[in-house]
Amino acid sequence: MHYVWDDRGRRYVDAHAGFGVAFLGHSNPKIVGALVDQALKIVTVPLSFRIPLEEELVRALEGVAPKHTEVFLFQNSGTEAVELALKLAWTFTGRRKLIAFRGAFHGRTLGSLSVTWEPKYRNGFPVLSDVVFLEYNASASVLEEHVDESTAAVIVEPVQGEGGLTPATTEFLQALEKLTKKAGALLIVDEIQCGFGRTGYTWAYEEHGIRPDIVVAGKAIGGGFPVSLVFTREEIAKALLGGRHGSTFAANPLAQAAVKASAEVFVEDSVPARVRQASEKLWRDLEARVSKLGPVRRLKGKGLMFGVELRFPPSRVLGCLQEQGVLALRAGATAVRFLPPYTIDDESISRVVDALEECICREHSC
Ligand code: PLP
User: Fold this and answer.
1) Residue having the nearest C-alpha atom to atom 10 of ligand 1
2) What's the burial of 18, exposed, middle or buried (CB within 10 Å: 0-12/13-18/19+)?
Protein backbone atom coordinates (compact mmCIF):
# COMPACT_ATOMS: atom_id res chain seq x y z
CA MET A 1 0.00 0.00 0.00
CA HIS A 2 1.52 3.29 -1.08
CA TYR A 3 -1.27 5.55 0.20
CA VAL A 4 -1.92 7.17 3.58
CA TRP A 5 -5.03 9.09 4.72
CA ASP A 6 -5.31 12.09 7.03
CA ASP A 7 -7.92 12.66 9.76
CA ARG A 8 -10.34 14.13 7.18
CA GLY A 9 -10.11 11.05 5.02
CA ARG A 10 -7.94 12.76 2.39
CA ARG A 11 -5.70 10.33 0.51
CA TYR A 12 -2.00 10.95 -0.21
CA VAL A 13 0.55 9.12 -2.36
CA ASP A 14 3.19 8.50 0.30
CA ALA A 15 6.55 9.14 -1.37
CA HIS A 16 8.03 10.08 2.01
CA ALA A 17 7.27 6.64 3.47
CA GLY A 18 8.78 7.54 6.85
CA PHE A 19 12.21 8.45 5.36
CA GLY A 20 11.95 5.39 3.12
CA VAL A 21 11.04 2.88 5.84
CA ALA A 22 7.71 1.80 4.30
CA PHE A 23 9.35 0.67 1.04
CA LEU A 24 7.47 -2.65 1.18
CA GLY A 25 4.23 -0.70 1.60
CA HIS A 26 2.26 0.39 4.65
CA SER A 27 0.71 -2.44 6.64
CA ASN A 28 2.06 -5.11 4.32
CA PRO A 29 -0.22 -8.03 5.31
CA LYS A 30 2.56 -10.63 5.36
CA ILE A 31 4.75 -8.52 7.66
CA VAL A 32 1.87 -7.53 9.95
CA GLY A 33 0.82 -11.20 10.15
CA ALA A 34 4.35 -12.34 11.00
CA LEU A 35 4.67 -9.72 13.76
CA VAL A 36 1.29 -10.57 15.30
CA ASP A 37 2.03 -14.32 15.21
CA GLN A 38 5.43 -13.80 16.81
CA ALA A 39 4.10 -11.40 19.47
CA LEU A 40 1.58 -14.05 20.48
CA LYS A 41 4.37 -16.64 20.82
CA ILE A 42 7.30 -14.87 22.51
CA VAL A 43 8.97 -11.46 22.28
CA THR A 44 12.31 -12.10 23.97
CA VAL A 45 14.46 -15.20 24.31
CA PRO A 46 17.51 -15.74 26.58
CA LEU A 47 20.72 -16.00 24.54
CA SER A 48 21.34 -19.59 25.69
CA PHE A 49 18.18 -20.80 23.90
CA ARG A 50 17.69 -21.29 20.16
CA ILE A 51 14.30 -20.96 18.49
CA PRO A 52 13.29 -22.34 15.04
CA LEU A 53 12.76 -18.79 13.79
CA GLU A 54 16.53 -18.29 13.67
CA GLU A 55 17.01 -21.03 11.08
CA GLU A 56 13.98 -19.92 9.11
CA LEU A 57 15.46 -16.44 9.02
CA VAL A 58 18.81 -17.69 7.71
CA ARG A 59 16.96 -19.46 4.87
CA ALA A 60 14.86 -16.39 4.07
CA LEU A 61 17.92 -14.14 3.97
CA GLU A 62 19.67 -16.43 1.48
CA GLY A 63 17.72 -14.72 -1.31
CA VAL A 64 18.66 -11.27 -0.11
CA ALA A 65 22.01 -11.16 1.72
CA PRO A 66 24.99 -9.75 -0.23
CA LYS A 67 26.35 -12.79 -2.06
CA HIS A 68 29.94 -12.66 -0.81
CA THR A 69 29.07 -12.15 2.89
CA GLU A 70 28.78 -15.00 5.38
CA VAL A 71 27.20 -13.55 8.51
CA PHE A 72 24.63 -10.95 9.50
CA LEU A 73 24.48 -9.11 12.80
CA PHE A 74 21.34 -7.44 14.13
CA GLN A 75 21.04 -3.92 15.50
CA ASN A 76 17.97 -1.76 16.09
CA SER A 77 18.53 1.33 13.95
CA GLY A 78 20.69 2.58 11.11
CA THR A 79 23.05 4.58 13.25
CA GLU A 80 23.72 1.62 15.57
CA ALA A 81 24.52 -0.57 12.59
CA VAL A 82 27.03 2.01 11.38
CA GLU A 83 28.58 2.12 14.88
CA LEU A 84 28.95 -1.66 14.77
CA ALA A 85 30.49 -1.53 11.28
CA LEU A 86 33.06 1.02 12.50
CA LYS A 87 33.87 -1.07 15.60
CA LEU A 88 34.39 -4.11 13.37
CA ALA A 89 36.77 -2.14 11.17
CA TRP A 90 38.75 -0.76 14.12
CA THR A 91 39.12 -4.13 15.83
CA PHE A 92 39.76 -6.14 12.66
CA THR A 93 42.47 -3.81 11.36
CA GLY A 94 43.80 -2.48 14.68
CA ARG A 95 43.84 0.97 13.03
CA ARG A 96 41.95 4.19 13.70
CA LYS A 97 41.72 6.41 10.63
CA LEU A 98 38.40 6.56 8.78
CA ILE A 99 37.69 8.02 5.36
CA ALA A 100 34.25 9.44 4.62
CA PHE A 101 32.82 11.81 2.02
CA ARG A 102 31.43 15.32 1.74
CA GLY A 103 27.65 15.17 1.78
CA ALA A 104 27.63 11.83 3.62
CA PHE A 105 24.95 10.98 6.16
CA HIS A 106 25.50 7.93 8.36
CA GLY A 107 23.49 8.69 11.51
CA ARG A 108 23.46 10.71 14.70
CA THR A 109 25.28 8.71 17.41
CA LEU A 110 28.88 9.74 17.99
CA GLY A 111 30.70 7.27 15.71
CA SER A 112 28.20 7.68 12.88
CA LEU A 113 28.11 11.43 13.41
CA SER A 114 31.88 11.54 13.07
CA VAL A 115 31.59 10.23 9.49
CA THR A 116 28.57 12.43 8.71
CA TRP A 117 29.47 15.58 6.80
CA GLU A 118 26.87 18.26 7.51
CA PRO A 119 27.96 20.74 10.25
CA LYS A 120 24.37 21.31 11.38
CA TYR A 121 24.32 17.71 12.66
CA ARG A 122 27.90 17.69 14.02
CA ASN A 123 28.41 21.07 15.64
CA GLY A 124 28.50 21.05 19.44
CA PHE A 125 29.35 17.35 19.77
CA PRO A 126 32.70 15.66 20.50
CA VAL A 127 33.11 13.90 17.15
CA LEU A 128 36.15 11.71 16.43
CA SER A 129 39.22 13.44 15.06
CA ASP A 130 40.65 10.52 13.04
CA VAL A 131 38.30 11.10 10.09
CA VAL A 132 39.28 12.47 6.68
CA PHE A 133 36.51 13.78 4.40
CA LEU A 134 37.11 13.61 0.67
CA GLU A 135 35.09 14.76 -2.32
CA TYR A 136 32.31 12.27 -3.19
CA ASN A 137 33.18 10.73 -6.58
CA ALA A 138 36.80 11.92 -6.21
CA SER A 139 39.31 10.67 -8.77
CA ALA A 140 41.43 7.58 -8.11
CA SER A 141 44.54 9.74 -7.75
CA VAL A 142 42.98 11.84 -4.96
CA LEU A 143 41.74 8.71 -3.18
CA GLU A 144 45.17 7.12 -3.50
CA GLU A 145 46.76 9.97 -1.55
CA HIS A 146 44.57 9.22 1.49
CA VAL A 147 43.73 5.50 1.60
CA ASP A 148 46.91 4.20 3.25
CA GLU A 149 48.19 1.71 5.78
CA SER A 150 46.83 3.71 8.72
CA THR A 151 43.29 3.52 7.33
CA ALA A 152 40.82 1.25 9.15
CA ALA A 153 37.92 1.81 6.76
CA VAL A 154 36.34 3.85 4.04
CA ILE A 155 32.60 4.33 4.48
CA VAL A 156 30.45 5.30 1.50
CA GLU A 157 26.82 5.49 0.37
CA PRO A 158 26.39 4.13 -3.20
CA VAL A 159 23.74 6.84 -3.60
CA GLN A 160 23.91 9.75 -1.14
CA GLY A 161 20.38 10.24 0.19
CA GLU A 162 20.26 12.98 2.79
CA GLY A 163 23.16 14.74 1.03
CA GLY A 164 21.19 15.34 -2.18
CA LEU A 165 20.45 12.09 -4.10
CA THR A 166 23.87 11.83 -5.75
CA PRO A 167 24.84 8.43 -7.18
CA ALA A 168 28.43 7.21 -6.95
CA THR A 169 30.22 6.53 -10.21
CA THR A 170 31.49 3.05 -11.02
CA GLU A 171 35.09 4.34 -11.33
CA PHE A 172 34.90 5.87 -7.84
CA LEU A 173 33.56 2.72 -6.14
CA GLN A 174 35.93 0.45 -8.03
CA ALA A 175 38.88 2.65 -7.07
CA LEU A 176 37.78 2.49 -3.42
CA GLU A 177 37.57 -1.29 -3.58
CA LYS A 178 41.01 -1.58 -5.13
CA LEU A 179 42.70 0.90 -2.78
CA THR A 180 41.16 -0.46 0.43
CA LYS A 181 42.19 -3.97 -0.55
CA LYS A 182 45.74 -2.83 -1.30
CA ALA A 183 46.01 -0.92 2.02
CA GLY A 184 44.44 -3.70 4.12
CA ALA A 185 41.56 -1.36 5.04
CA LEU A 186 37.86 -2.29 4.96
CA LEU A 187 35.28 -0.93 2.54
CA ILE A 188 31.97 -0.26 4.33
CA VAL A 189 28.98 0.38 2.12
CA ASP A 190 26.06 2.16 3.80
CA GLU A 191 22.90 0.87 2.08
CA ILE A 192 20.53 2.01 4.80
CA GLN A 193 18.63 4.26 2.42
CA CYS A 194 19.57 3.08 -1.08
CA GLY A 195 19.67 -0.67 -0.42
CA PHE A 196 17.11 -3.50 -0.33
CA GLY A 197 15.80 -3.01 -3.85
CA ARG A 198 15.29 0.74 -3.94
CA THR A 199 17.55 1.42 -6.93
CA GLY A 200 16.42 -1.65 -8.91
CA TYR A 201 19.24 -3.83 -7.54
CA THR A 202 19.02 -5.82 -4.33
CA TRP A 203 21.99 -3.71 -3.14
CA ALA A 204 22.89 -0.53 -4.98
CA TYR A 205 26.63 -1.38 -5.00
CA GLU A 206 25.92 -4.47 -7.19
CA GLU A 207 25.53 -2.27 -10.24
CA HIS A 208 29.21 -1.36 -9.94
CA GLY A 209 30.65 -4.87 -9.72
CA ILE A 210 32.38 -4.41 -6.34
CA ARG A 211 32.51 -6.64 -3.26
CA PRO A 212 32.50 -4.48 -0.12
CA ASP A 213 33.75 -5.95 3.18
CA ILE A 214 30.76 -4.72 5.17
CA VAL A 215 27.24 -3.86 3.99
CA VAL A 216 24.95 -1.94 6.34
CA ALA A 217 21.16 -2.16 5.93
CA GLY A 218 18.30 -0.51 7.82
CA LYS A 219 15.06 1.38 7.18
CA ALA A 220 13.12 -0.90 4.77
CA ILE A 221 14.72 -4.19 5.82
CA GLY A 222 12.19 -4.74 8.64
CA GLY A 223 9.13 -3.69 6.64
CA GLY A 224 8.47 -0.91 9.19
CA PHE A 225 9.79 -2.63 12.32
CA PRO A 226 12.83 -0.80 13.79
CA VAL A 227 15.75 -3.06 12.92
CA SER A 228 19.05 -2.93 11.06
CA LEU A 229 21.60 -5.48 9.85
CA VAL A 230 25.34 -5.58 9.26
CA PHE A 231 26.44 -8.13 6.66
CA THR A 232 30.09 -9.15 6.61
CA ARG A 233 32.59 -12.00 6.39
CA GLU A 234 33.07 -14.36 9.32
CA GLU A 235 36.72 -13.40 9.91
CA ILE A 236 35.67 -9.76 10.35
CA ALA A 237 32.72 -10.53 12.64
CA LYS A 238 34.95 -12.71 14.83
CA ALA A 239 37.13 -9.70 15.66
CA LEU A 240 34.42 -8.45 17.99
CA LEU A 241 33.46 -11.47 20.07
CA GLY A 242 33.17 -11.78 23.83
CA GLY A 243 30.69 -9.07 24.76
CA ARG A 244 32.70 -6.26 23.18
CA HIS A 245 29.53 -5.19 21.44
CA GLY A 246 25.92 -5.95 22.35
CA SER A 247 22.41 -4.61 22.63
CA THR A 248 19.43 -5.65 24.76
CA PHE A 249 16.98 -5.55 21.90
CA ALA A 250 19.12 -6.61 18.93
CA ALA A 251 17.89 -9.78 17.21
CA ASN A 252 14.77 -9.98 19.39
CA PRO A 253 12.18 -12.39 17.96
CA LEU A 254 9.94 -9.59 16.68
CA ALA A 255 12.83 -8.07 14.73
CA GLN A 256 13.76 -11.50 13.36
CA ALA A 257 10.16 -12.20 12.33
CA ALA A 258 9.94 -8.80 10.62
CA VAL A 259 13.18 -9.29 8.67
CA LYS A 260 12.21 -12.85 7.70
CA ALA A 261 8.81 -11.73 6.39
CA SER A 262 10.37 -8.74 4.59
CA ALA A 263 12.95 -10.95 2.89
CA GLU A 264 10.20 -13.35 1.81
CA VAL A 265 8.08 -10.54 0.36
CA PHE A 266 11.19 -9.21 -1.38
CA VAL A 267 11.89 -12.51 -3.12
CA GLU A 268 8.28 -13.57 -3.83
CA ASP A 269 7.44 -10.21 -5.34
CA SER A 270 10.75 -9.80 -7.26
CA VAL A 271 11.07 -6.33 -5.75
CA PRO A 272 14.14 -5.16 -7.74
CA ALA A 273 12.42 -6.11 -11.03
CA ARG A 274 9.26 -4.27 -9.95
CA VAL A 275 11.36 -1.20 -9.13
CA ARG A 276 13.06 -1.31 -12.53
CA GLN A 277 9.67 -1.56 -14.24
CA ALA A 278 8.17 1.36 -12.28
CA SER A 279 11.34 3.40 -12.82
CA GLU A 280 11.06 3.19 -16.61
CA LYS A 281 7.82 5.15 -16.77
CA LEU A 282 8.84 7.39 -13.90
CA TRP A 283 12.15 8.54 -15.38
CA ARG A 284 10.65 8.89 -18.87
CA ASP A 285 7.93 11.17 -17.47
CA LEU A 286 10.41 13.12 -15.33
CA GLU A 287 12.67 13.69 -18.32
CA ALA A 288 9.79 14.81 -20.53
CA ARG A 289 7.88 16.96 -18.07
CA VAL A 290 10.18 18.16 -15.29
CA SER A 291 13.85 18.14 -16.30
CA LYS A 292 13.61 21.18 -18.58
CA LEU A 293 11.56 23.46 -16.33
CA GLY A 294 13.36 26.74 -15.62
CA PRO A 295 13.59 26.38 -11.80
CA VAL A 296 15.03 22.84 -12.13
CA ARG A 297 18.79 22.37 -12.11
CA ARG A 298 18.70 18.63 -12.76
CA LEU A 299 16.97 15.35 -11.98
CA LYS A 300 18.69 13.41 -9.20
CA GLY A 301 18.84 9.84 -7.86
CA LYS A 302 18.32 6.34 -9.13
CA GLY A 303 15.34 3.96 -9.41
CA LEU A 304 12.72 4.77 -6.78
CA MET A 305 15.11 7.06 -4.91
CA PHE A 306 14.60 10.13 -7.03
CA GLY A 307 14.03 13.85 -7.03
CA VAL A 308 14.90 17.20 -8.48
CA GLU A 309 17.55 19.70 -7.57
CA LEU A 310 15.96 23.15 -7.69
CA ARG A 311 17.55 26.57 -7.99
CA PHE A 312 16.13 27.51 -4.56
CA PRO A 313 15.18 25.85 -1.22
CA PRO A 314 12.36 23.34 -1.70
CA SER A 315 10.06 24.10 1.27
CA ARG A 316 7.27 25.78 -0.73
CA VAL A 317 7.28 23.03 -3.33
CA LEU A 318 7.04 20.44 -0.54
CA GLY A 319 4.08 22.28 0.99
CA CYS A 320 2.37 22.51 -2.40
CA LEU A 321 2.95 18.80 -3.08
CA GLN A 322 1.25 17.96 0.20
CA GLU A 323 -1.72 20.13 -0.82
CA GLN A 324 -1.80 18.17 -4.08
CA GLY A 325 -1.91 14.86 -2.20
CA VAL A 326 1.75 13.83 -2.56
CA LEU A 327 4.12 13.45 0.42
CA ALA A 328 7.82 14.02 -0.25
CA LEU A 329 10.88 15.21 1.67
CA ARG A 330 13.92 17.42 1.33
CA ALA A 331 17.44 16.24 0.43
CA GLY A 332 20.42 18.55 0.94
CA ALA A 333 19.71 22.27 0.69
CA THR A 334 17.82 22.40 -2.59
CA ALA A 335 16.48 18.99 -3.62
CA VAL A 336 12.98 17.53 -3.36
CA ARG A 337 13.27 13.81 -2.60
CA PHE A 338 10.80 10.99 -3.24
CA LEU A 339 11.14 7.54 -1.61
CA PRO A 340 7.88 5.76 -2.50
CA PRO A 341 7.04 2.13 -1.76
CA TYR A 342 7.87 -0.34 -4.56
CA THR A 343 4.13 -0.93 -4.98
CA ILE A 344 3.65 2.51 -6.55
CA ASP A 345 1.60 2.08 -9.75
CA ASP A 346 1.46 4.00 -13.03
CA GLU A 347 -1.49 6.11 -11.90
CA SER A 348 0.35 7.27 -8.77
CA ILE A 349 3.56 7.87 -10.71
CA SER A 350 1.58 10.16 -13.03
CA ARG A 351 0.11 11.89 -10.00
CA VAL A 352 3.58 12.50 -8.53
CA VAL A 353 4.96 13.89 -11.81
CA ASP A 354 1.84 16.04 -12.46
CA ALA A 355 1.98 17.47 -8.94
CA LEU A 356 5.72 18.10 -9.14
CA GLU A 357 5.42 19.97 -12.45
CA GLU A 358 2.48 22.01 -11.21
CA CYS A 359 4.09 22.86 -7.84
CA ILE A 360 7.46 23.89 -9.28
CA CYS A 361 5.74 26.20 -11.78
CA ARG A 362 3.21 27.54 -9.29
CA GLU A 363 5.78 28.40 -6.63
CA HIS A 364 8.52 29.66 -8.98
CA SER A 365 7.33 30.61 -12.44
CA CYS A 366 8.51 28.37 -15.26
N1 PLP B 1 22.80 5.97 6.88
C2 PLP B 1 22.02 6.46 5.90
C3 PLP B 1 22.49 6.39 4.48
C4 PLP B 1 20.77 7.03 6.20
O5 PLP B 1 20.01 7.52 5.21
C6 PLP B 1 20.34 7.05 7.56
C7 PLP B 1 19.06 7.68 7.92
O8 PLP B 1 18.47 8.43 7.20
C9 PLP B 1 21.19 6.53 8.54
C10 PLP B 1 22.41 5.99 8.17
C11 PLP B 1 20.78 6.53 9.99
O12 PLP B 1 19.73 5.63 10.20
P13 PLP B 1 18.79 5.79 11.48
O14 PLP B 1 18.04 7.08 11.34
O15 PLP B 1 17.90 4.57 11.44
O16 PLP B 1 19.68 5.79 12.67
Assistant:
1) 106
2) middle
Distance 278 CA to ligand 1 centre (A): 25
Backbone angles phi and psi of 351, in degrees to 5: -65, -40
> Considering the entire predicted model, what is its pTM?
0.97
User: Which helix H or strand E contains 217, and what residues bound it?
Assistant: strand 214-217
Task: Fold for 3-26+270-363, please state it.
Answer: Aspartate Aminotransferase, domain 1 (3.90.1150)
Q: What is the pLDDT of residues 92-119, one digit of tens each?
A: 999 999 999 999 999 999 999 999 999 9
Domain 29-268 matching CATH 3.40.640.10: the answer reads yes
Which atom belonging to ligand 1 lies closest to the Cα atom of 20?
Answer: 8
What spacing in Å lies between the alpha carbon of 234 and ligand 1's midpoint? 25
Could you tell which of 156, 192, 221 is best to mutate to test the pocket of ligand 1, judged by most ligand atoms within 8 Å of the CB? 192
